[in-house]
Amino acid sequence: MSAIAYIEEGEIRVKAVIFLYGKYADAPLAQAIEAEINRMWNAPEVVIPVRMQLLTVRFRVEVEPVSLEEARQKMQDNRSHEVNFVRVEDANIVERSMMGRGLGQNSGHWLITDQLGQSTTAAHEFGHALGLPHPHQLDYRGTGYPPLMAPRGTLVDAVFQWNPLAEPGAYGGTMNPVHRRVRPEEIMDVLARAEFNGDYFIIGEISNYFYDETGR
Ligand SMILES: [Zn+2]
What are 11's strand-pairing partners? Predict the structure, then answer.
C-alpha cells in the first residue's frame, strides 16, 4: 500500500484509499477491512513534537469495492500515492495474502480465507504496503502482545499462542495472529520512510499492477 501524510488540525494524518476488486469485493468486506485497519493502526497513541507543537498521528484509510473494469480504469489514471488496489480471491499462486513483490507497493492480492477484517491480516498487509518488513526478532516472549508485523511462527507468551498449553515452538505453540497489536515504534518506522514531495509526504510506491484471479 502506499499512502500520503500531511499535517492538519494538530494531527499528522496518514491517508490511503484501497479499491477492492475481484470475486469477494463487496461492501460488507470493504467495511470490515476498513474498520480493522483504522482500529488497529489508531490504537497506539503516538504523539510527535514538530516545531513546538505536539502532533498526534492518525490513520484515515478508506476501502471501497469496485468492478474489475473500474479497477482497470482507475489504475490507468492513477498518479497518486494515496490510491491502492487489492484483488480478493479464494486462492493465489503464493498461497497467502500479499502486497506486490516488494515492500511499499500499491497493488496486492489478498485471500478471503485470511479472515480479512476479522483478524489482523488486513492491517498486517497494510503495514507491508507502507514499507514495513517482518521484524528480525522472532521471539517476543516476555514483551506482551506481539507487534503487528510479526509473521506466523513467531514465539510469544503462552496466552498469545494458538494453544496456550502447547510447548513454545511445538504444534500450537506459536503466535495466533489475532493477538498482534500495532506498536508505537511500528508507526515511527512508517513515518521514517515518508518522503516530502514539496506538498506532502509520500509513503510507498505506485505500481498500479492489475492482478488476475490467481495473483499473476
Ligand atoms: Zn507479512
Answer: 8, 56
